[in-house]
Specification:
Elements: E1 6-12, H1 19-22, E2 31-37, H2 41-51, E3 56-60, H3 61-70, E4 75-78, E5 91-94, E6 109-112, H4 118-131, E7 139-142, E8 164-167, H5 174-179, E9 185-187, E10 201-203, H6 208-219, E11 226-231, H7 232-237, H8 241-260, H9 273-284, H10 297-309
Helix pairs in contact: 4-10
Length: 326
């Protein structure tokens, strides 16, 4: 008599690449996924890291790598990346702050949801690598973008070398602080609501798409935001689940890519989607979202290097040491 499927509670955003898993179109071998759709990533991270609230979840890649290398962290990861995004378009400035080029950010007061946020790590890496910005000159205000107060509910990772960083205790959202000229810039994973609503809030790179394309063509880096983490106690009892989950995630992602290409009736409300797909196929050789270590080595090595250069970890680690075998 065969064993019943292992039930695993999985928390993730409702992304197209996991849609087939969420709706049972694809199922991991030997596993029943209790899919918890949570479209606020920080809530997932706080629940998983703070309480072990899920068996499996998406997790901040910078937070996972830092805690994995610097602490006794009770989670393992598989090389599945639910969230990734180019970030040149996520630097927002006040037009009166005297910022015309990236170097002009030096000495400025910059809002960030969380200093250790993966998006912030990537953007600082771009500023340093691509534009020669001296990161040690930047001053930081940390807090939620759209409401007063903090972004994370658990203690987050801090750099080994102190930076000029203060919590936002103004009683105002950072989006409003930027519009009012009380901070000079915001960077991170979220567009402030004041963009488009207030004339003084603009992007540092207004025409960011060709910049991001050029960046990828030169580096083959498509920034990874999140990994899939498994509680160590769950993995230790049932190590086979890593491979089963990996294969199912990959199938689900491919299902979503195939669905995007159905042209008889367009799946997404993007009027120029098929032109975009042509560009994506040309640039990414048909797969803009590969899983596994090897196809993502340039991206993962860059992220680990940024974490070391920004003093979150002591030195880069071999990429293979970050993931369990699949």
């Amino acid at each position: 008599m065969s064993s019943p499927p292992l039930k695993l509670r999985f928390a993730c955003g409702g992304y197209d690449r996991v849609e087939a898993l969420q709706h049972g179109i694809i199922a991991p071998d030997g596993i029943t996924l209790d899919f918890q759709e949570i479209n606020a990533p920080r809530h997932i991270f706080d629940g998983m890291i703070g309480e072990g609230a899920f068996d499996v979840s998406e997790m901040s890649s910078s937070e996972f790598i830092t805690r994995k290398l610097m602490t006794d962290f009770p989670f393992v990861a598989i090389p599945v990346f639910p969230s990734r995004a180019f970030r040149h378009g996520f630097i927002f400035i006040n037009r009166h702050a005297g910022i015309g080029t990236p170097k002009d950010l030096e000495g400025k007061l910059i809002g960030v949801p969380q200093h250790s946020q993966t998006a912030a790590v990537w953007i600082r890496g771009h500023l340093q690598d691509e534009y020669g910005v001296d990161l040690s000159t930047l001053r930081w205000l940390e807090g939620s973008v759209e409401q007063a107060g903090e972004h994370a509910k658990i203690e987050t990772t801090s750099p080994l070398v102190p930076v000029v960083l203060e919590p936002n205790r103004s009683g105002k959202a950072m989006s409003d602080l930027l519009a009012d000229g009380e901070i000079d810039a915001i960077l991170g994973s979220r567009r402030p609501e004041s963009l488009g609503r207030h004339p003084d809030v603009i992007r540092l790179f207004p025409d960011y798409r060709p910049i991001e394309r050029d960046f990828y063509e030169r580096t083959h880096i498509h920034p990874i935001m999140h990994v899939v983490a498994i509680r160590h106690d769950v993995y230790e009892k049932e190590p086979w689940i890593a491979q089963s989950l990996y294969r199912a995630f990959d199938e689900s992602k491919n299902w979503a890519l195939d669905r995007l290409r159905i042209s008889a009736a367009q799946h997404c409300m993007l009027p120029f989607m098929f032109a975009d797909l042509d560009e994506v196929d040309e640039l990414f050789d048909g797969d803009p979202w590969p899983y596994g270590v090897e196809p993502n080595r340039p991206t993962l090595e860059a992220l680990v290097r940024h974490l070391a250069e920004q003093n979150f970890i002591r030195e880069p680690a071999p990429i293979e040491s970050l993931f369990v075998g699949v």
